[in-house]
Amino acid sequence: MTERPVIARSSLLPAASLSGNDGGHFKYPSKDDCPARDQHTQMPRDYRAWHEKAREMRDTHRQVRCPVCGYWAIWTPKAAE
Ligand SMILES: [Zn+2]
Fold it and tell me: Which of 38, 65, 68, 75 is close enough to 61 for a disulfide, judged by CB 3.0 to 4.6 Å?
């Protein structure tokens, strides 16, 4: 095994660094602090596993913002639209 890449966890970033793309600011430092986090789609915490899962789901799901925290934390099936 060679050395592992350092994985930046988004929960460690200040909320301000995440607010640029969406034009708004987030009310919570991380989506795990959202009071409605039970409604978030459960995704793997591991960086690579998350991206793998996201790639799978992209074909069948649409990522939408949580109305409470504003994070793109909810995946809805495309068929449901
Ligand atoms: Zn939320």
Answer: 75
